[in-house]
Amino acid sequence: MGVQLRDDDVVARLRAGAPGYPDAGPDAERTLGAARRALRRRRGLRSVGGVAAVVAAVVGLMAVGPIELPRSGTPSLDPPPQTASPSPSPSPSVSPSAGEDSCQAGGQPVGPASAPIPPAPPGRRHPPFRIVGLPGAGGAVVSSPQYPHAVPGRATRTIGNVLLDHEDYYYVTAKDSSRLYLHVETGTPKAGVCALELVYTALRGEDGLRAQRIATLLPGPALGRHNAAFACGMSSSGSGLSVCAWAATSAGDRTLFGMMEIMPIYKPDGFAEHQLSETEIIATADIVFGAIDG
Question: Where are the domains of the chain?
């Protein structure tokens, strides 16, 4: 603790010339320079310290590895669920009225015909000469019985062993009879055969590649009255939905099978001039079935 001086002692010391104190005060220029140098040193140390902190943080993150950021919503502290091994996608399902019972029961295996299949009895079917109202046809289509074909229909080469009869029909556009637009196959399958198997086997073809992206669809009203299984896909020769098949094999109802393939006009880029939508292909199949076999 320092010595407390009285005011009169301080005044007397100053009047005596302040012995013991230097004649001149501190050098202001030197004091200011020293203060500036000290300030620069402190700023430098702070900068170095900040850079070192950033480097340390980056190195730490690299050592820890990637960090998953929280998604939007309330974060959950529960452990992630166990991921099961992927399983194959199930086949498209159909209602029992479309032949599911016969598929589950396991009927006769389908395959190509081992002998020529006879045509249907006279009057069994009624193919018209002219069909109108087909979406994408650009007008009416007319029957062409003499249209050349060198091989039997796809149905005989895939499911012919369960067909009691089979017939092919060809339709060309009315405005250009040289261009085939529609090929239709019809037949009478044995009762109790899996209707959905008939449809998919015929669409895939003998090599399994004749149609892609096959999908089971709800049929139109004409086919719906027979509880038919119905599916469409893309043919291997073009784009868009262009091939469909249908079948009904319930013993208590009329058994039937049909298949159609549309041959649209293709542009230079390989796409059809009028690519049928799902609604249009369903309507086309229903019109064709009703006109020939309904």
Answer: 96-292
